[in-house]
Write a structure and sequence with these properties.
Helices cover 5% and strands 55% of the residues. A 16-stranded antiparallel barrel has the order 1-2-3-4-5-6-7-8-9-10-11-12-13-14-15-16. A hairpin with a 2-residue loop joins strand 10 and strand 11. It has a single domain, classed as Porin, CATH 2.40.160.
Length: 333
């Protein structure tokens, strides 16, 4: 009887050891950026001082040898923003996420010291895909040892926003959005040191359950982009094209150019410009141009940036010009 009891206790102890959960880790990180911006051509001039700040709560744990991670961002107003739950496997990473979309992450990857050329002036309708919408994302970092990454995303309701409450659904009958799909392939070109390429495509489908809610002209929105970058020594060069065809039969096209120079480990400078056009349903075409010079200097966890930008035919409005100069102090903590 004693032997049977000992055997039972030993089996129970072994079971508890196998099924006990590994303790996960949680961390809180953040960043802030204070700016001073001045320029001309603005319709409303307000306070030239500004600040942007964001917090991120991240956590991870181990489940049977696989990493499970969670991320939740918190906005300036202390409100919840994008969220992500990801599962790392031997066959890639699967995530339930609204924290970015594959094609949005490569909307403009031309080299820059600070901001994109259109960051402070005008507005541009470029590829954005299903950014901010909760869905399923699959990432394979190295396809068969090629050095190329495949990044794909799917959502059942394009444009529906962040995750709904558990056990809940969202949506109404009638006109609305169908599913959204996108894919990005990018990586370094084998045997050509310093050369990298990438391309992406996204589609947001429109459905019409009520024929009287929307006219017959409703169409899907398609987006696509491709880029090539080359780095040699302290120089980096980049060229990219993009296009967005909206459901309203409006076509947006962009061409991006960028060159950057690394002066030292702490200092870099760049020049970027963008040619963008809008072709309306009636065939009217408007061209919008941006150019920007920027510099960035890092000191540990603090970075000082400066950029001078201008645009013509801003926001696709003929004869509208805007320029701006920004000085930025960014700190990560």
């Amino acid at each position: 009887m004693k032997n049977i009891t000992k055997l039972g206790l030993s089996a129970l102890a072994g079971t508890l050891a196998i099924t006990s959960a590994n303790a996960g880790e949680m961390s809180l990180t953040g960043s802030m950026e204070a700016t001073y911006t001045t320029g001309s051509g603005y319709s409303n001039i307000g306070n030239e001082l500004g600040m942007d700040k964001e917090l991120s709560v991240t956590g991870s744990t181990d489940v049977n040898g696989n990493t499970v991670s969670y991320k939740q961002t918190i906005t300036d107003a202390m409100a919840y923003n994008d969220s992500e739950l990801s599962f790392g496997t031997d066959f890639g990473t699967i995530a339930l996420t609204s924290a970015g979309a594959p094609i949005s992450a490569i909307d403009d990857v031309t080299p820059t010291a600070f901001e994109e050329a259109n960051a402070m002036v005008g507005s541009i309708d470029d590829v954005n895909g299903n950014d901010g919408t909760y869905g399923i994302r699959y990432t394979l970092a190295d396809v068969m040892g090629s050095g190329f990454t495949v990044d794909a995303f799917y959502t059942g309701d394009a444009g529906s926003g962040d995750a709904q409450a558990d056990n809940g659904t969202a949506g109404t009958a009638g006109a609305g959005s169908g599913d959204g799909k996108e894919i990005v392939i990018k990586g370094s070109v084998p045997m050509v040191e310093g050369l990298s390429v990438g391309a992406g495509y996204a589609i947001m489908e429109t459905i019409n359950q009520d024929s009287q809610a929307v006219g017959p002209g409703t169409t899907d929105q398609d987006e696509g982009t491709a880029y090539v970058k080359y780095a040699t020594g302290p120089f980096s060069l980049g060229y990219q094209i993009g296009a967005v065809s909206t459901g309203g039969n409006v076509l947006y096209k962009q061409q991006y150019y960028g060159i950057s120079y690394t002066v030292s480990d702490d200092l870099s400078v760049s020049y970027n410009w963008i040619d963008a056009s809008k072709t309306a349903a009636d065939g009217l075409r408007t061209e919008q141009d941006f150019d920007s010079i920027s510099a960035s200097y890092s000191m540990g966890g603090m970075t000082i940036n400066i950029a001078d930008s201008d645009c013509s035919n801003c926001s696709y409005s003929a004869n509208r010009s805007t320029d701006a100069t920004t000085v930025s102090l960014a700190i990560a903590f």
